[in-house]
UniProtKB/TrEMBL annotation:
Pfam families: SnoaL_2
InterPro entries: NTF2-like_dom_sf, SnoaL-like
Organism: Sandaracinobacteroides saxicola
Transmembrane domains' residue ranges: none
Protein's name according to its UniProt entry: Nuclear transport factor 2 family protein
Residue ranges occupied by any SnoaL-like domain in the UniProt entry: 8-103
Length: 129
């Protein structure tokens, strides 16, 4: 059930542990970024994107403000503020039968927030987050 899997995701967001994140990802996981035009495939690259997002968007100002469920997935609306810019977006997560994340898509608004997230994520990914 998605709610049980989602509880694990919420626990991770509240206290990021990259070992836990790695274990949550299916080896063939796919990540779709709001700023990269092609899906990123494989646990290693998905891990890098999500670990970088922890550092860019996560922390005290990050919060989920809405949740919608299906049998194997969830859509989570989030809000954050980074460098004085309000970020609003959604995480769309799908799990396999074993509870591992197989697909993670992020959409962000407004344009100013997308531009800022793009720049900061690029910096984090270049560092090897």
């Amino acid at each position: 059930m998605s709610r049980e899997r989602l509880a694990r995701w919420h626990a991770y967001v509240a206290a990021p542990d990259h070992g836990v994140l790695w274990d949550m990802l299916h080896p063939d996981a796919v990540f779709e970024s709001p700023v990269v035009h092609t899906p990123q495939r494989g646990r290693e690259i998905v891990f890098k994107y999500l670990a970088s997002a922890d550092q860019v968007l996560g922390g005290e100002g990050f919060r989920y403000v809405g949740e919608w469920f299906s049998d194997d997935g969830a859509v989570l609306e989030f809000e954050s503020e980074v460098d004085g810019i309000k970020v609003n977006g959604v995480d769309m997560i799908r799990w396999d039968a074993d509870g591992r994340i197989v697909h993670f898509k992020v959409m962000v608004r407004p344009l100013k927030a997308i531009q800022m997230v793009h720049a900061k994520m690029g910096e984090m990914l270049a560092k090897g987050a």
